[in-house]
Amino acid sequence: xxxxxxxxxxxxxxxxxxxxxxxxxxxxxxxxxxxxxxxxxxxxxxxxxxxxxxxxxxxxxxxxxxxxxxxxxxxxxxxxxxxxxxxxxxxxxxxxxxxxxxxxxxxxxxxxxxxxxxxxxxxxxxxxxxxxxxxxxxxxxxxxxxxxxxxxxxxxxxxxxxxxxxxxxxxxxxxxxxxxxxxxxxxxxxxxxxxxxxxxxxxxxxxxxxxxxxxxxxxxxxxxxxxxxxxxxxxxxxxxxxxxxxxxxxxxxxxxxxxxxxxxxxxxxxxxxxxxxxxxxxxxxxxxxxxxxxxxxxxxxxxxxxxxxxxxxxxxxxxxxxxxxxxxxxxxxxxxxxxxxxxxxxxxxxxxxxxxxxxxxxxxxxxxxxxxxxxxxxxxxxxxxxxxxxxxxxxxxxxxxxxxxxxxxxxxxxxxxxxxxxxxxxxxxxxxxxxxxxxxxxxxxxxxxxxxxxxxxxxx
Length: 460
Prior knowledge:
This protein is α/β, with parallel strands linked by helices. It has three domains: 48-250, 2-enoyl-CoA Hydratase, Chain A, domain 1 (Alpha-Beta Complex), CATH 3.90.226.10; 260-387; 394-451, CATH 2.40.50.140. The chain contains 14 helices and 16 strands. The longest helix has 27 residues, at 361-387. The protein starts with 16 loop residues before the first helix and ends in a 9-residue tail after the last strand.
């Protein structure tokens, strides 16, 4: 629109959302491009075949995670596929989830390649889950200054588990000791009483096979030993001069490992839901909606690798639906409260208690309160926004006052809101330049006006 020339165009201030939309779209594209790059580049480096007769080494360092289970299984599969001399697990862990422990142990027991476990370096431990992993190896070794044991299962808060879970762990330990012909008394005591021993005592007891300071010493010591695989085939280890190839986690595996915990998954779901609710209340593809969607995707990706229950997932979906519903029935708070309660029970029931997993209390309750109050607050703000007079679009000019500037036969032009508009009247009132009018309707670029009862001064 250009001043008083009579050339009409849509006022630019009626479209404040366009620049925001473009910025949000660029942000979304950039984030998706980054995720795609990580996905494509991350696994590529792990596909190079190892040399013939190599030893494939993988490290379990720190608390046991889903990433460790994946890379151990990947190392065993690659070792079998490329006829490796052995697979070696460098172990230093205080323990971890029962389900992941069993997953790793099963892969080791059924592997068609010799599996070596080395508790290393000095100062390392094969605690809790690490005890079971060490016992599952064809050859188990420890460096001096390391420990093994303290394998009593605990719940998510570190408390005692039920007798049923304890006895199941004892039976599992006995089966491993029998399978690998290792000391039965020590591992049973490690489970029942939390017994732990240093490397030299573990060797005397028969819990491990040898002491070795580093990988070279270990491979030299075990060279020529015979091991029996799950198929019954006997293999003589040829490891003295074998090249060692490290199998490392990809960028994607490391990222998933970082978020594949109950607390992080629960936080991502809650914050992501609030982001989407905020975006629905303020449409336009803003950063809240983009980040909220990404958080929800990451949350469900982490849930995919965690042991979840059907009841917990159903409650989680219900909670999300109720929290979003508060946006459309705002002010009362019933849906927000229902969503918060559903979210609370989802956090309690979402993960399989038999694995010792769960959302910690210090995360669960504050997150539930924030989710409920956040949904309620956003709903109230959205209601207030909907009840305000329109500030953009066709309704923005309804009720605005203006001044007649030109009357040419049946053609009428009025000055309204800083612009010159074509206009007409419904009542057929006769108007003259200088008359004050009120806008009562708008059709495209044409206004419908009626005479203003009170006189006011327009300053164009």
